[in-house]
Amino acid sequence: MGESVSRFLIIAGLALVALGLLWPLVKKLGLGRLPGDVHLSGDGWSLHLLLGTSIALSIVLTVVLNLVMWFLNR
């Protein structure tokens, strides 16, 4: 059990590093400007509610992490 958790954490960490390195490419894909993302601003303030981006990332990460766990448990 502990070994699978360790593998999961290592893979999750590597995925975050990869996402950080690929962030310029990710921004070009339009994340942060999806339908459902709300950007409000006023005099000296701004608010960014990235609802569409959060849902899209949640779906993608769910699929990727389920695939990773499936491969680890084979």
For the largest beta-sheet, the strand count, sense and barrel status come to:
2 strands, antiparallel
How many structural domains in the coordinates?
Answer: 1
- Overall shape: it is elongated
Order of helices and strands: HHEEH
Which residues form runs of ≥5 with pLDDT under 50? Answer: none
- C-alpha termini separation: 14 Å
Number of alpha- plus pi-helical segments: 3
Rg calculated over all Cα atoms: 16 Å
Tell me the total number of β-strands: 2
**What percent strand?**
15-25%
Structural class designation: alpha+beta
Please, what is the oligomeric state?
single chain
Helix content: 55-70%
Biggest sheet: strands side by side, in what order?
1-2
Write down the overall mean pLDDT: 88
Can you give a write-up of this model?
The protein is 65% helix and 16% strand. The protein has one domain (2-72). It has helices at 2-21, 23-28, 51-72, and strands at residues 37-42, 45-50. A hairpin with a 2-residue loop joins strand 1 and strand 2.
What topology emerges from the helices and strands here?
Layout: H1 2-21, H2 23-28, E1 37-42, E2 45-50, H3 51-72
Antiparallel strand pairs: 1-2
